[in-house]
Amino acid sequence: MAVKRLGKGLGALIPEMSTEDAEQGKSPERLRDVDVARVKPNPFQPRETFDPVALEELKQSISENGVIQPITVRQTPSGFELIAGERRLRAVSDLGLDRIPAYVMEVETDQQMIELSLIENIQRENLNAIDEANGYLTLINECNLTQEVVAKRVGKDRSTVTNFLRLLKLPKQIQESLTKDEVTQGHARAFLALESPAEMLSLWQETLKKGHSVRQVEGLIKKKKSPRKAKKEVKHEVSPFIRELEDKMRGVLGTQVRIQQDGKDGRGKIEIEFYSADEMERIIELVEGL
After folding, report:
1. Which residue range is the domain that position 274 belongs to?
2. How confident is the model at residue 224 (pLDDT cuts 50, 70, 90)?
3. CA distance 270 to 186
4. Which of 50, 72, 113, 189 could form a disulfide with 84 if both were Cys (CB 3.0 to 4.6 A apart)?
5. Would you say residue 284 lies in a domain?
6. Residues 97-137: tens digit of each pLDDT
7. Which residue among 109, 124, 139 closes a domain?
């Protein structure tokens, strides 16, 4: 039976066992021991970095206890293609083992392969932010999906997917720093408020050197971008009511929102940030639906 619904998380990766089989202690029909040499890597693997320490720990565990969780593959004319479980496959291969337990799934399209790989990595393997963002981008580009559809496929909010994709606009040095946990996603999102890659890199280097918190980085950016505006804000403190409205609008629209109320008669303006034509269209659709 082909996989049709992929938004169920890890449940989509593991074949279900019938009640009768469960009562008789049988394994699912598609659970097999396969030849390690016949399993090809997943061409759509979203994970680009593998922790060598964690891999060594996994190898030690497999040496002592065997492979507890089977990998997941699809059958091809020449053998099998990995869907999920690359770390386990690498560990078994490094240990020189010939066989590995595997769930053999009927996956008909590359889109299903990409979705399943991304779901498995996000929910089981704890993908770093950049690999997760690249996984979403692959779904969008390779499968011609919108951000809204991608979000539904992986069980995330649309704003969450959008925020991950924005991280790919950072200079490569900062992306690598994020994967190494030298800076947090909060730092990374703050850097994106700067206008040029050179400014981002400069503040990133200062952050590494001085250990700036996310709030400190946001404060430095605020001063850099609009010194005149910062002076005005000292004179005219934003009311708690306005701050609450901003927070609510950010939650609804999934992006940065600022409300400025300068005039004594209540006049002002609302600024809504967007970072691509696709995101602008999304925000317009949300506003029209309110």
Report:
1. 238-290
2. confident
3. 23
4. 72
5. yes
6. 999 999 998 887 877 777 777 776 666 556 788 988 888 88
7. 124
Residue 208 inside a domain? The answer is no
pLDDT band at 14 (very low <50, low <70, confident <90, very high): very low
72 within a domain of the structure (yes/no): yes
Contacts of 254 (CB under 8 A, 6+ apart): 157, 158, 159, 160, 162, 163, 282
Is 41 in contact with 85 (CB distance < 8 Å)?
A: no
The pTM assigned to this predicted structure is 0.55
Q: Residues 6 or more apart from 42 whose CB is under 8 A from it?
A: 81, 82, 83, 84, 86, 113, 117
Q: Is residue 188 part of a domain?
A: no
Does residue 274 have a pLDDT over 70?
A: yes
From the list 20, 48, 86, 206, the catalytic residue is: 86
Res. 165: pLDDT tops 70: yes
| Residue 86 a catalytic site member | yes
Structure tokens at 83: 């869907």
Domain boundary among 100, 124, 148: 124
